[in-house]
Amino acid sequence: MFQLLLSAYSTISIHDTALFLGMNEDDATNYVLQQGWTVDHASKMLTVKKQPIVTEQKLDPSKLQRLTEYVFHLEH
């Protein structure tokens, strides 16, 4: 559920966060603060800290070979 909150919200109320995570408001606030989120106590809103997207590039040697042959063919 925490991952869904990360992807769906940029800000969310403490109350809603607690409901989604199945915790009381204090526990939910402490949990998300440990994850790097920030809290505005005046408005009782949390600002979500987006995690960087890590993409893995998989290199298939046969595709690289075909691309090389294609480029070589175009150049000659």
Q: Please indicate the count of domains.
A: 1
Which residue ranges are poorly predicted, with pLDDT under 50 across at least 5 consecutive positions?
none
Content of β-strand: 5-15%
Structural class: mainly alpha
Give, in order, the helices and strands: HEHHEEH
Number of H- or I-type helical stretches: 4
Shape: rod-shaped
Oligomer: single chain
CATH class: Mainly Alpha
CATH architecture: Orthogonal Bundle
Span from first to last CA? 55 Å
Helical residues, percent: 40-55%
Q: What is Rg?
A: 22 Å
Write down how many β-strands occur, each being a DSSP E stretch of 2 or more residues: 3
Largest sheet: 3 strands, antiparallel
Strand order of the largest sheet: 1-3-2
Describe the structure.
This protein is mostly helical and 76 residues long. The protein has a single domain, classed as Arc Repressor Mutant, subunit A. 53% of the residues lie in helices and 12% in strands. It has a 3-stranded antiparallel beta sheet with strand order 1-3-2. The N and C termini lie far apart (55 Å). It is found in: Cytoplasm; Nucleus. One of its GO terms (biological process) is COP9 signalosome assembly.
Nutshell version of this structure?
This protein is mostly helical.
SSE layout and pairings?
Layout lengths: L1 H7 L2 E3 H8 L3 H10 L3 E3 L4 E3 L13 H15 L1
Helix pairs in contact: 2-3
